[in-house]
Amino acid sequence: MIECRLAEASVLKKIVEALKDLVTDAAFEFSENGLQLQAMDSSHVSLCYLQLLSTGFEHFRCDKESSLGVSLPNLAKVLKCANNDDTLTLKAKDEPDVISLVFESKKQDCIKDFDMKLMDLEQEQLAIPDTEYKSKVTIPADEFRRIIADLQVLGDTCKITAEKAGVRFAVEGDVGKANITLKPGEAADEEGGKSVNIDVEEAVELRFALRYLNYFAKATPLAESVELSMSKDVPLLVEYKMGEIGAIQYYLAPKIDEEDEE
Amino acid sequence: MVRAKATATARGTATRARKTQTEKKPATASKAKTATRTAKKEHKEDQVPDIEDLLRPERLTISSSSSDEDKSTRGKATAQSKSVKPEKQADSQHDDAVDKLRIDLLTWFDENRRLLPWRGDRAGDYLGKSLAEVPEDARETPRRVDPYETWVSEIMLQQTRVETVIDYFTKWMKRFPTPQALAEASPDEVNASWAGLGYYRRARNLHAGAQRVTEEFDGKLPSEVADLLKVQGIGAYTAGAIASIAFGRAVPLVDGNVIRVFARLFAVGAEAKAPSLIKGCWSLAASLVDPKRPGDFNQALMELGATICKPRGAACEACPVRSCCRAYALDPTQVHEYPLKAKAKVLPVQTYAVGLVKRSSQRPDGKGADEFLVCRRPSTGLLAGQWEFLMARSATTSPTMPKRRSLVNDALKALDETIAPCRSCITEATREDRGLHEHTFSHLQHRLLIEKISLPSDRCATCKTSNENTSVDREDEVKIVDDISQDEVQVVSEGASAKDTAPASSEVTWMTLGELQERGMTASTSKCLILAEELEAKPTKAKARKPKTGTSTKKRKADGPASEKDSKQQQLRMTAFFSNGSKSKSSE
């Protein structure tokens, strides 16, 4: 059986919010080490990978590895019924056909119990290769969300250029064009960690669909900062690290110029 | 700046044909070398080979085996090993080198070849992937491939990307499993199966070839090059491919990939299309082809060109024959400069005003559907027999909107009135500019200025009556003729009468999207449709793109409608990067 408890329901709420617009159905893979989820959006342009470690839970038990297929929008609706500071317990039997969610208020005076039917999902899982990225950029998560939102005003494709001197987000559309450049800040700069950090071994320039970046930015509440990793001709990795509990990673395939060799 | 200079120098190194260019360059270290070489051109020891060297392939040498040392030593080692060898030694060295090249190449091919249906690999997730990416337990012995399959695949692969061909090939083999089946098919069936691949002559030749094979060679492809060349559409390349791959004849073949590989192996500074280089490559290929496994050797050469020795960005670190590669020995960073790029041709441009006329219509089955006015191109010439939207040639490259409209109007007027949309239905409000699509053919460029005309669903009085009277003959596979007659019902049932009523050039009719797709759309037609209808572009496989669209970029006018598909880039998919891991529950 599976039983795991989170001190605050808000964590799972935010996670599901960060996924549900991108993927509708996905399978939570439970194992003794924790739980993970890998899914692609319907057009297979992006992939999200969630990893939660057992150590990040208040209590975590999984006797048998199981895969629980759920509809994320429905899960989000169920989670809306929980208060942010409720404790949340996920439960499932071996070979389950439902997953139970129990929300308990801090004062233990209200207990809500939800059962959600599971789905049989035959999803293809991709092997994510280990990539040594040539450039990594860490920026405050809300800054990233803002940039993506701002650029969407002008177009739908964003050119991201990472250079030692800074990272540039550029978009060109019918209305006009825009460039947003972030320069590396002093790490010691004011209230710690909230600055741009750039680690570029080789300058990289790639183009991506803003629509997907916007979906990724839904994970903003989960982390202070977001890390963008890029190398030539490989998908962009956008990673939100959630402290000790784990991380959520998004991969996005680049767009390429249509003119090319024979 | 720096890069530009480096490139220029490399070009200088690579060519002596462009000496003037070299002389203008500021002196750099490698430039000095070039100069020396140029000076002692008459020397036999000249270390930069030229076309003549290709014609004397005994020049093939292996650089010192420890080829991973730094540049300078490598360069020197090659230079020495190449230059001062007495003839006899050179001979034996050449034989060794040829053997090594064959072994290296075939070993690499056995391990890394791509899985392709025409290589007998079964359909599955791994098609198009390299064998190295396939887990051991998923590997299967390829089935025997029929020469006909080799033939079809080789024709399809001309000028077309492997990824694109896979789907077309599979469908083709289902529809026309034997030369006989193909020979018996109607030209329109053949055309429809080919639609989208481009270079439609290939399909017509293949069709004619199949008929010839059925009649003259008893339904079996001949195995000798000389006989193969008699079949329509089979040239030197295809004949070599079929004879070596399907029949195991030790004959050479040369295609663009092979030319590139050879040009780099021997560091030949010639333009890729130079006749002398092509000729040299043929004789070189003939001397190198492996007598025991000619088909695999030839495919390995091409595969190397397609996957490792790419036009841009050669993946030299993964190259099995790097140690014999003179371009690599000279300068590993400049390998991609060989062969020289031909000067970009300026293609003649033809501008057309395209009228994409759309109406909603009551189909005979009672369902409403959107229909498009399409014309068929004449059965000879460019894109012969393909369907397209209304096209009106413009004399100027950038006609103004009113001019475009009048061109389209003229084209509409030229249509037979039984087909043409009622003119009173076309008003200012129904017409919409949908921007520009440029399509590059091998010899000319089309600029298509697209205008969408949506006929209102609540029609004017004349249309209304005609619509009620419309009778449609849907049975006829090809010649569908809607007859919208103002006065009386008139059923046009057969092609003959359709031809009489249609304008001189070709047939004109109304088709639904489904029918259009069934008959196949050219790359341009589907692009026009995408632009006009803001359709989602068809999901394509990784990097798969419409065959040979060349520089098919579309520019949109500033005031054009915004749509995502309109952007210049192509969105790649995750599956292009991450391989399929089998989903086993016991995985960690």
From TrEMBL, chain A:
Presence of the UniProt keyword Mitochondrion in the record: no
Residue ranges constituting the Proliferating cell nuclear antigen PCNA N-terminal domain according to the UniProt record: 1-124
An annotated GO cellular component: PCNA complex
Species lineage: Eukaryota, Sar, Stramenopiles, Bigyra, Labyrinthulomycetes
GO MF annotations in UniProt: DNA binding; DNA polymerase processivity factor activity
Cross-referenced NCBIfam families: pcna
Glycosyltransferase is among the record's keywords: no
Domain of life: Eukaryota
Entry's transmembrane regions: none
Species: Hondaea fermentalgiana
Name of this chain's protein: DNA sliding clamp PCNA
UniProtKB/TrEMBL annotation, chain B:
Basic and acidic residues compositional bias, start-end: 42-59, 84-95, 558-568
Catalytic activity, as annotated: Hydrolyzes free adenine bases from 7,8-dihydro-8-oxoguanine:adenine mismatched double-stranded DNA, leaving an apurinic site
Key word 4Fe-4S present: yes
Name of one Pfam family that matches: HhH-GPD
Cofactors, names only: [4Fe-4S] cluster
Entry-linked SMART domains: ENDO3c, FES
GO molecular-function terms, A-Z: 4 iron, 4 sulfur cluster binding; 8-oxo-7,8-dihydroguanine DNA N-glycosylase activity; adenine/guanine mispair binding; metal ion binding; oxidized purine DNA binding; purine-specific mismatch base pair DNA N-glycosylase activity
This protein's UniProt keywords: 4Fe-4S, DNA damage, DNA repair, Glycosidase, Hydrolase, Iron, Iron-sulfur, Metal-binding
Residue ranges, compositional bias (Polar residues): 569-588
Region (Disordered) location: 1-95, 536-588
GO annotation (BP), single: base-excision repair
Domain named HhH-GPD: residues: 156-307
A GO cellular component entry from the record: nucleus
E.C. number(s) listed in UniProt: 3.2.2.31
Amino acid composition bias (Low complexity), ranges on this chain: 1-15, 27-37
PANTHER family: ADENINE DNA GLYCOSYLASE
Similarity comment text for this entry: Belongs to the Nth/MutY family.
NCBIfam families: mutY
Protein name: Adenine DNA glycosylase
